[in-house]
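[Discussion] Sanity-checking designs against the backbone

I'm trying to build intuition for which residues belong where. Below is a C-alpha cell string of 154 positions. I'd appreciate it if someone posts a full sequence so I can compare it with mine line by line.
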C-alpha cells in the first residue's frame, strides 16, 4: 500500500511538471513568450511611418487635418528651460504654407502607450538657406496625437 502511494505521488508530480513545461511563471501569470518585443529596426521603421504621415498632414496645410494629429494639451520645454503649455498646438497648426519641412528619424523608443521620436527637422523658407534642428516628438498610441516634447536647440 505504501509503495502504491509513493508511486502515485511520483506520477502526480511528473504529470504536474509535464503540463507546466515551457511555461514562464511570471508574476502577472502571462507567458513571456506570447509578448513580442519589437526590434530596434521595427521601432525605427514605425517611427519613420508616423513621421511620414505627419509630414503629409503638414504638406496638406489643412488646419483640421494637422489638428487631428497634434495634442492641444502638450507642454513644450524649450532649451532655455521655459515650459509653454499648448505650444506645440500653436506651432503645428500655424506653420506657414511656404515652409518646406523634412523629418529625419534619428532615434526612436517605444512603450505600450507611446513612442518617443528624436528627429532632425530641416526647414526651408523661400530662398533662405535650409535650417536643420533636432526636435523630440511623442506619439500617444491611445489618442493618436503627436506632441513636441522639447526643442533641443535654440
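Best answer:
Here's mine. Compare freely.
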Amino acid at each position: 500500500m505504501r509503495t502504491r502511494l509513493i508511486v502515485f505521488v511520483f506520477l502526480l508530480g511528473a504529470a504536474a511538471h509535464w503540463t507546466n513545461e515551457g511555461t514562464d511563471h511570471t508574476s502577472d501569470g502571462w507567458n513571456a513568450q506570447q509578448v513580442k518585443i519589437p526590434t530596434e529596426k521595427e521601432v525605427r521603421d514605425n517611427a519613420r511611418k508616423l513621421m511620414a504621415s505627419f509630414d503629409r498632414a503638414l504638406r496638406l496645410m489643412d488646419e483640421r487635418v494637422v489638428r487631428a494629429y497634434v495634442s492641444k494639451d502638450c507642454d513644450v520645454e524649450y532649451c532655455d528651460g521655459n515650459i509653454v503649455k499648448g505650444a506645440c498646438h500653436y506651432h503645428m497648426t500655424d506653420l506657414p504654407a511656404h515652409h518646406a519641412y523634412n523629418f529625419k528619424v534619428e532615434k526612436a523608443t517605444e512603450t505600450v502607450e507611446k513612442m518617443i521620436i528624436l528627429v532632425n527637422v530641416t526647414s526651408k523658407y523661400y530662398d533662405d538657406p535650409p535650417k536643420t534642428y533636432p526636435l523630440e516628438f511623442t506619439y500617444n498610441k491611445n489618442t493618436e496625437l503627436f506632441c513636441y516634447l522639447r526643442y533641443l536647440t535654440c
